[in-house]
Amino acid sequence: MARKLKWGVISTADIARTAMIPAIQESERGEVVAIASRDADKALEMSKQYNIEKFYGSYEDLLQDPEVEAIYIPLPNHLHKEWTIRSARAGKHILCEKPSSLSAGDTVEMVEACNQAGVLFAEAFMYRYHPKHQRIKDIIASGEIGELRSIHCTFTFNSSDQEDNVRFNKEMGGGSIYDVGVYPISAARMYLKSEPEAVSVHALYSEKHGGVDMMASGLLEFPGDITLTFDCGMWAASRSNMEILGTKGTIAMPKMFGWEKTSVVPQIFVHVGTMTREERLKGHNSFKLQAEAFAAAVLDGTPLPYEPEDSILNMRVVDACIESARSRRRVIVG
């Protein structure tokens, strides 16, 4: 039996509880051996719920555990930098939830700390590990839909009635751009294999929700006069879809950032002329695929599909989007 990567999880956040911990436990190459919370009772409760051997009442204690090889960080956004750097200095490999930090400068410091410590760093954009995205790249490369003209992407949901939601705390890195806007930005960069030159974003700021952007709509200008238009929000009906427009046709994904558990539901629709083709791929759990890829990188030396520098580049675009929304002007991506 292949050796498994031993994970420690810092925080009892919902995404750890409902998605990442179960995914690691279902994977062939990983196991969660420790969980930490600043509330020891919460850590104990979660360790019992998920049959995790060890629990800690502080993040520092978990980092001192010699059995733990990799750390998953689903903390609030403003804590990503601190605990990535602390984890790196403790000799742990790091999978950090998106966004990597609150600025490109912070992400640079995080990546440098990991490089100096000789540990791996990856930003947890789980959707990118699903094979449907490689299929979409192949369709684009084939020329079936012609030359690319634009991409349109949406990612919205409604959590506006929740109280004490960290996403509504400006100091903790709240807001829809940080929370879900990062997805269409990263996806467009992934498909186009280039970086936007300028951005224009308009946002709805809500004093009822800590003054954060509860909704944002944006235009990203890529080389070759290709554009991404997107909207993201935490105060709108749920949507998660993407359309890629070419000179001959389109590719549509009705569940862009989720995944289908079976191949019964079509994941990709290709429209060319009067013809429409549906494509169904095998059902996959993107969180599990992400865990497997990270374990292969640590244990086997298999290169990660996205280098840490990709997180820096993505945050440069996010920085520009936030600046544009606040200033209500077009911003050049620096």
UniProtKB/TrEMBL annotation:
Under the heading Pfam families, the entry gives: GFO_IDH_MocA, GFO_IDH_MocA_C3
Q: Where is the GFO/IDH/MocA-like oxidoreductase domain?
A: 133-251
Q: Where is the Gfo/Idh/MocA-like oxidoreductase N-terminal domain?
A: 6-123
Q: Which UniProt keywords apply?
A: Oxidoreductase
Extract the SUPFAM superfamilies matched here: Glyceraldehyde-3-phosphate dehydrogenase-like, C-terminal domain, NAD(P)-binding Rossmann-fold domains
Query: Sorted alphabetically, which InterPro entries does this protein's record hold?
Result: Gfo/Idh/MocA-like_OxRdtase_N, Gfo/Idh/MocA_domain, GFO_IDH_MocA-like_dom, NAD(P)-bd_dom_sf
Concerning Gene3D superfamilies, the annotation shows: Dihydrodipicolinate Reductase, domain 2, NAD(P)-binding Rossmann-like Domain
- PANTHER family attached to this UniProt entry: OXIDOREDUCTASES, TRANS-1,2-DIHYDROBENZENE-1,2-DIOL DEHYDROGENASE
Entry similarity comment: Belongs to the Gfo/Idh/MocA family.
* Protein name, as recorded: Gfo/Idh/MocA family oxidoreductase
Originating organism: Paenibacillus zeirhizosphaerae
